[in-house]
Amino acid sequence: MIEIRWHSRAGQGAVTGAKGLGDVVSTTGKEVQAFALYGSAKRGAAMRAYNRIDDKQIINHEKFMLPDYVLVIDPALAFTDNITENDKEATKYIITTHLDKESLIKEIPALQERADRVFVVDCMQISLDTIGRAVPNAPMLGAFVKISGMFELDYFLESMKRVLSKFPQKIIDANMDAITRAYNEVK
Amino acid sequence: MAQKYDIKETEVWDGNYAASQALRQARVDVVAAYPITPSTPIVENYGNYVANGYVDGEFVMVESEHAAMSGCVGAAASGGRVATATSSQGFALMAEVLYQASGMRLPIVLTVVNRALASPLNVRGDHSDMYLGRDSGWIQIDAFNAEEAYDMTLCAFRIGEHLNVRLPVMVHQDGFITSHTAQNVHPLSDDDAYQFVGDYKGVDDMLDFSRPVTYGAQTEEDWHYEHKAKQHKALMDSRAVIDEIFEEYGKLTGRNYKRVESYMMEDAEVAIVALGTTVETCRVAAEELRAEGIKAGVVAPRCFRPFPFDNIREALKNVKAVACLDRSSPGGAMGALFNEVSAALYTTEARPLVTNFIYGLGGRDFSIKEAKRIFMEQKAHVDAGHITTPIQQFSGLRGPKLGFFETKRS
Amino acid sequence: MQERDLCAAENRGARELGAEKLVGWDEVQQGVVLNSFEGDATGIVLKKAEERLYSDFNSYTATVASWRVQKPVFNIDVCIDCQNCWVWCPDSSIISRDKQMLGIDYDHCKGCEVCVQVCPTNPKSLLMFAEHTELDAALSQWPEKTKKEEK
Ligand code: SF4
Ligand code: SF4
Questions:
Q1: Is the beta carbon of C117 within 6 A of some atom in ligand 2?
Q2: Which residues in chain C touch residue A40, judged by CB atoms under 8 angstroms apart?
Q3: Is residue B238 within 8 Å of residue B167, measured between CB atoms?
């Protein structure tokens, strides 16, 4: 079982991201779960979304998890939220930030002993450049594809096109750009 | 003719979406709704399907949940297939009309996304709304995950509309934990689903102008009692129909449902009885404990009403200790599941030790670890030969231990 | 420039929403009743917000500063004290005293940009900047008055 925890703000699309990831994973024959824990359920409030991925049907419904991946899609949450909560020896962190990796780690003591498992990408800037709005979920998926090695980029892009098929072509293209850019830029 | 929906063999749907797709595939004629969190997307999606031509139906916006259920009663009495959704406070406001619907024998389907009742205000899930409906004369079926929310909603139309039943049906799912958790779901095609549900068969329709009828008559003491008895009998007798329809659905989908689900019970020594998603979490706990040599099992009344007194007895006849988990504040009594399961077990020879846990109120997480602890406590009762804790306890509660009543042994 | 004293989080021990101490069932307040102020609040209406003893449960003592992606910056040199921003801000985050606009309460501002939209001056006296922009840097790049287009 692979477990993923997203740190986000309501409105940034972590739930959509987690569900989109779930959709793609399900096409590979695996079982998925995508759910969220809302804080005060208001746009802007800190919230968490979760994925579980397994080969057999997932019947565990507890909210508690020991994540294999922590995806932080809001830059401020890396500082204010307890992003290393319940982590494991091998938990990988992908954090959206305008800082470079060294400066970010310097600012966040908890990440210092995990430095070799921390990856950074500026999902905010990428989404502003490609989609035109601060919706960092799509670029985070691109970064996750790269770091996890779970899919080939092309397979993921093709599957995401299907997931997004109800949207206008312009939006689909912008999302594909965002995913690809983050895939290439995550460090 | 409505357009068909393109549905894949495996979809990743949350419980709300699954339920709304079932409403569409059943070609519900009327949804009268006053949306409330966390059930909102069910009726919202149905409204979308109407607007986009995926179902020939009518979405009626009303001014409250009381009006929503009233609208459903009107539409059902007129002769349509009717459904709606609600949660929590909305359910409470519907309560008066729920009794009207069952008394008039109208097979409305109400998808209830379980949520705590205020105060304190809370949008998260527990079973207090489901328990509020338990004497309302409705059939109450419980789904433990998103796929089951879909399956049970389709079955609900068949069960409620069956001519030997003709009762309204609630399909429950856990707020957020099921309603907002996307999982692999294997839906039927539109054609297969509708073929299973079938055309609506009218009974005493108000719009049948060849036979005008009155609904909602007043009775007083000379008639009320007989009508209620007949209604209760129909509810009790629905058990056989439910079994039959579950079996047919199993043949169609390979998913076999029972009024009481039993997991790992063949040789179980200790068991948990629970409802909703907790059932599945407890299954994981039982599996893990079995690896350590503890014979743990899980029993779940999928059908909460009519209460499966018979099958509960059967499922638990060989266990030594049972913990009944109630996700609703019992308001000065033992939890409802404890009371009903205990009553059933009292009429068995074995009479296992039964304890009650209140847990998960207002959406408090229920973990595998806690489920294992509860199993182990049952094991301790078995080893001691008596209940070693208060009979009612609170699980996952902050603060000093809270418990009530000891076994009286002298 | 900005009245630092009025805005600074440390003056009222502001904390992130949801950071309340989690007590047990034996310690929670009966009836889910929340006190707005510490102690006797008689006459509190006559006191300024920064002088009041708000309780821990009062949202005044909690901050939502981290919800912002962008923040409004106030330029006192352009402001005409029309109070439009004060009227429109949905989060009571415009600090005004005696009809003088003093600045933004960055502990409660969520960065919605409403104040910027309603500010009537030319150039605007409120503009949005990326959250991590320093105030001085923001002020130094303030735009010039825009000329009317030739008709
Ligand atoms: S950005 Fe919004 S919340 Fe902040 S001061 Fe302006 S109007 Fe108020
Ligand atoms: S709306 Fe603009 S000009 Fe008016 S008080 Fe606010 S900042 Fe000053």
A1: no
A2: 17-18
A3: yes
Range of the domain at C108: 15-140
**Over the stretch C107-146, which tens digit does the pLDDT of each residue have?**
999 999 999 999 999 999 999 998 889 999 999 999 999 8
pLDDT, tens digit (0-9, with 9 covering 90-100), for B356-383: 999 999 999 999 999 999 999 999 999 9
Residues in A whose CB is inside 8 Å of some CB of C read: 9, 39-40, 44-46, 76-77, 79-80, 98, 124, 134
Would the ipTM clear 0.95, i.e. be above it?
Answer: no
| CB-closest option in B12, B145, B368 to A22 | B12
Residues C71-106, buried b or exposed e (16+ Cβ, 10 A)? bbbbbeebbeeeebbbeebeeebbbeeeeebbbbbb
Distance from CA of A39 to the nearest CA of B (A): 11
DSSP 8-class letter at B138: -
> Does some domain include residue C151?
no
Range of the domain at A130: 2-185
Matching residue, tokens 């594909």: A176
Q: What is the DSSP string of C90-106?
A: TTS-EEEETTEEEEE-T
CATH number for the domain harbouring residue A24: 3.40.920.10
**What is the distance in angstroms between the Cα of C150 and the nearest Cα belonging to chain A?**
31
Residue C30 lies in a domain: yes
3 state DSSP class of B308:
coil
CATH number at residue C48: 3.30.70.20
One-character DSSP codes across B142-180:
E-SSHHHHHHHHHHHHHHHHSTTT---EEEEEETTTTTT
One pLDDT digit (tens) per residue for chain B, 410 residues: 789 998 999 999 999 999 999 999 999 999 999 999 999 999 999 999 999 999 999 999 999 999 999 999 999 999 999 999 999 999 999 999 999 999 999 999 999 999 999 999 999 999 999 999 999 999 999 999 999 999 999 999 999 999 999 999 999 999 999 999 999 999 999 999 999 999 999 999 999 999 999 999 999 999 999 999 999 999 999 999 999 999 999 999 999 999 999 999 999 999 999 999 999 999 999 999 999 999 999 999 999 999 999 999 999 999 999 999 999 999 999 999 999 999 999 999 989 999 999 999 999 999 999 999 999 999 999 999 999 999 999 999 999 999 999 987 76
> Is C4 within a domain?
no
Cβ(B35)–Cβ(B167) below 8 Å:
no
E runs forming strands in C14-69: 15-16, 62-63
In this structure, is residue C48 part of a structural domain?
Answer: yes
- Residue C69, Cα to own-chain centre: how many angstroms? 15
**A114: which DSSP letter?**
T
Pocket test for ligand 1, best of C94, C118, C127 (most atoms within 8 A of CB): C94
Rounded distance, CA C57 to CA C49, Å? 15
For residues C109 and C91, is the Cβ–Cβ distance under 8 A? yes
Q: Are strands B30-33 and A2-9 parallel, antiparallel or unpaired?
A: unpaired
Helix ranges (H only) for B40-87 are 40-51, 65-78
Identify the structural domains of chain B with CATH numbers, from first to last.
11-253 (3.40.50.970), 260-404 (3.40.50.920)
User: In chain A, how many domains are there?
Assistant: 1
Domains contained in chain C, number: 1
Q: Are strands C70-74 and C126-130 parallel, antiparallel or unpaired?
A: antiparallel
